[in-house]
Design brief:
Layout (H helix, E strand, L loop, with lengths): L7 H31 L3 E2 L5 E3 L5 E3 H4 L5 E6 L11 H9 L3 H5 L3 E7 L3 H11 L5 E3 L5 H4 L3 E2 L7 E2 L2 E2 H6 L8 E2 L2 E8 L2 E9 L8 H6 L19 H6 L2
Parallel strand pairs: 4-5, 5-6
Antiparallel strand pairs: 1-12, 2-3, 4-11, 7-10, 8-9, 11-12
Length: 239
């Protein structure tokens, strides 16, 4: 049993003590999110192209549709792979209906280097509805540090250099595809990069983890973390 058994009165005292800390965290988060909104922006001058499911080649501006904001999830899916990364796939299972975001002037899309044909095949298998485009052939993944190849650009991930990553024993973040999330803002014809987060910074967007965190047993995951979860269609196949 993960916790001790107490009387109702003792439980209430413990719960009220925890509630004080929860409210402190809520207020701290409110201040933190205000800093997100105040974060300076960087103008995106480079032209990036993406391949869509209908065979079109579009620009970063096109991904906004008619919205002012764009959230991009950098989905690990290399050109050589036949399916997306297991951890990123768990993230995909947690994405909301994008219409909720669009109602607040915010577009959403996943981006991977895999060919659009592979993306569409995997998307059909999972049943996901969110937009997903291929950045294959462009510098987009390299410029936003989610594809690491020292022959293309200096290694940097989660705002750490190659030397810093090696010093911390983070060899898994030294090459290849990496997960991340980036935010862009559009004013007229100009596009600005406002925010990017990587690695464990992505956990705040995992509803499943957020729910498990308040249970006695917690997340119940091992070294593989999110990659340990099955996808919805795999649970269906077990029936």
């Amino acid at each position: 049993m993960p916790g001790k058994v107490v009387t109702p009165g003792e439980w209430l005292d413990a719960r009220k003590a925890l509630l004080v800390k929860e409210k402190e965290m809520t207020r701290a988060n409110e201040k933190l999110f205000a800093q997100f909104r105040d974060l300076p922006m960087v103008k995106v001058d480079k032209e990036y192209t993406f391949h869509t499911s209908d065979g079109k080649k579009v620009t970063l501006a096109d991904l906004f549709k008619d919205k002012k904001q764009l959230i991009v999830y950098h989905f690990m899916f290399s050109p050589e792979a036949d399916m997306g990364c297991r951890g990123c796939s768990f993230m995909g299972e947690n994405f909301p209906d994008v219409r909720l975001l669009e109602s607040k002037d915010t577009a959403f899309t996943a981006v991977s280097r895999a060919p659009i044909e592979k993306i569409e095949a995997f998307k059909q298998k999972t049943g996901w509805k969110f937009p997903w485009v291929s950045s294959g052939g462009s510098d987009f993944n390299y410029d936003f540090h989610v594809t690491l190849d020292e022959s293309v650009a200096p290694v940097e991930y989660n705002y750490r250099t190659k030397a810093e990553l090696e010093e911390r024993g983070l060899a898994r973040h030294l090459d290849g595809e990496q997960p991340g999330l980036s935010v862009f803002y559009k004013e007229g014809d100009e596009i600005y990069h406002t925010y990017s987060t990587y690695a464990r910074g992505l956990e705040r967007y995992l509803t499943t983890f957020n729910l498990l965190d308040v249970t006695p047993l917690g997340r119940q995951v091992g070294p593989m973390g999110p990659a340990e979860f099955k996808l919805s269609y795999e649970y269906d196949e077990e029936k």
